[in-house]
Amino acid sequence: MKHVRTISVVCLLIFGMCLLPMAEVMAQPKEIILGAALPLTGGQSREGGYYKRAYELAVKEINDAGGITVKEYGKKIPVKLILYDDKSDNTTSVQLYEKLVTEDKVNALLGGYGTPLITAHTIVAEKYRTPYVNGGGATGAIYERKMKYIFGLIANIEKLTYTVMDWLVGQQDAGNLKKPLKIAQMGENTSHGKEFRQGIQARSKAAPDRFQVVMDEPFELNLKDADPLLQKVKASNADIYLVDARLADYTTIHRRYTELGLYHQVVSYGPRGSEKAARDALGAASDYIMSCNWWHKDLPIPAAKSFAQKWEKLYNEPAEWFPALGYETVRVLAKAIEDAGSLDKEKIRNALAKMDMKGSLVVGGRVTFKPNGQIDNDYVMMQNAPGGKASLIYPADIATAKAIVPIPKK
């Protein structure tokens, strides 16, 4: 009789389980794990710190709303964010991304910051077929390696140079700049800098009646002495001066440029120029510098304005492109998980490949990816103004002021 009762209880338990909804029978995760390694110390700690705060803010907002809806489980699941410090070191970055995948068992990866670091650690995401989204790597070379799991939210550097050159053409046609223009250009000795210099060379060769490159020099990162380069700039007798440099190198170079009393009708350091740290360091020396960037707080897009107001209120500082793109990186990955309706990595990857996210804070307000995984949105150009301010100057449909060209002599 005792055995009969035991069998009956077992049968009832099995029968009861059969009546449960399938989503309840499946093992339900307590959290969705996202992870990244960022340069929180070392040469790029300032930028890495921006991404850390942006990631944390986006995840907090998602969790405050209950988490990410995952159809497969029929409910919202909160997000756990794991962040490590790669110390701005390539080898360390690779090791930490390995740890995130193999030990922390992340569902998906958020990217780091900077071309060398991202180029190095993205091999981990591809190796383990783990979806990866970043807002800190623009170099086209990152995405031309035929990787399936790597996605990026900032357009490539070649497009940046083409945007600058198109703007210069408009200034020539408006009579503000002469034809041909003699260009002195420099770029950091990385794929980022090489793409910048190659883009200018390509456009110049295609339009020799408009442009003539009279100086083209690479330089190593973390430049200590800018004098040899700037003496070449001076000797080139160029009309305009175009440089691709990271924030620290931009500050070092332009401080010395100013001390030497150099002048050009147009001065640009690629995507650098309007950052608060550089404006604080250079003061009036940074006035009238033009920059070409992936985002600006004055973009006429509701999501961009909302983020800019939120960031300034939280941190008492103006929103720059670093946190804006970091914040949107999390939102894009969250949408991909929701679109996939699953935590299956292949399904999340496929959702990213098919992504069409409207209402984004990126330029144009829409996120889609090219077949290589990189976004192709437009750039915006801005010009610093006295008093630490900056205005959007290009494209015309979003400009908040006309460019001052040639820039005034000091």
Write the layout of secondary structure elements.
Blueprint lengths: L1 H18 L2 H4 L6 E7 L6 H20 L3 E3 L4 E3 L1 E7 L4 H13 L5 E3 L4 H13 L4 E3 L5 H4 L6 E3 L4 H17 L7 E8 L2 H16 L4 E9 L7 H10 L3 E5 L2 H13 L6 E3 L7 H7 L7 E4 L8 H14 L5 H20 L4 H9 L3 E2 L7 E2 L12 E6 L3 E6 L16
Parallel strand pairs: 1-4, 1-5, 5-6, 6-7, 8-9, 8-10, 10-11
Antiparallel strand pairs: 2-3, 12-15, 13-14, 15-16
Helix pairs in contact: 3-13, 4-5, 7-8, 13-14
Properties at a glance:
2 domains, 14 helices, 410 residues, alpha/beta, disordered N terminus, Rossmann fold, 4-stranded parallel beta sheet, 5-stranded parallel beta sheet, elongated, single chain
Structural summary, described in words:
With 410 residues, the chain is α/β, with parallel strands linked by helices. It folds into two domains: 192 residues, Rossmann fold (3-Layer(aba) Sandwich), CATH 3.40.50; 155 residues, Response regulator (Rossmann fold, 3-Layer(aba) Sandwich). The protein is 43% helix and 18% strand. It has 14 helices and 16 strands. The strands form five sheets. Strands 4-1-5-6-7 form a five-stranded parallel beta sheet, with helices on both faces. The chain has a four-stranded parallel beta sheet with strand order 9-8-10-11, sandwiched between helices. The longest helix is centred in the N-terminal third of the chain and has 20 residues. 45% of the residues are buried. The N terminus is likely disordered.
